[in-house]
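== Fold encoding ==
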Amino acid sequence: MKGLGLPPSVADELMRHARAELPNESCGILSGSLGTGLATRFHPARNVEASPLRYNVHPEDLVRITFAIEDAGEELVAIFHSHTHSAAVPSATDRRTAMYPDPFYLLASLSEADAPPARALRAWRIYRGQAFEVPLTIG
C-alpha cells in the first residue's frame, strides 16, 4: 500500500504545533503531491473545538489554506491532528467524521512528551468509517 512521506523539517513543524496547542488537540493540513504521497508543506490551523478530545479545522483557516494550496499548484495530501493522551490511532469519532477519501490522515500522539516524530506520528487512510494504517516515511 502506498504511503505518506514527509521531510524531517515538516515532521518537526507538526510536532511543534501539536505541543504548542496543548492541552487541546491541534490540527492542520499538509500539501504537496497526492500522486507521490509526498507532503512538502504544513499549514497549521486553529481547532475550532478548542478541546483536548476533539478537533475541527476552523472554517476560515480551511478556506485560507485551500486557496493557498491551489495558488501554489499543490494538492491536499494529508489532514493532521494530535491526540493529547492516547495513541496516534483514529478514534471512533475520527473514523465517523472523516469526509475526505483521497488524502491521508496523519495523527500525532503526545502521550510521550518528548517522543521524536518517527515514534509519535502515524499515517492512515480512512474510508467509509474504516481506518487502514499506511507506511509513513520521514526523510
Observations:
- The chain has a mean pLDDT of 96.
- The beta strands are 4-6, 27-33, 38-45, 75-83, 104-109, 121-127, 130-134, 136-138.
- The radius of gyration is 13 Å.
- The first strand starts at residue 4 and ends at 6.
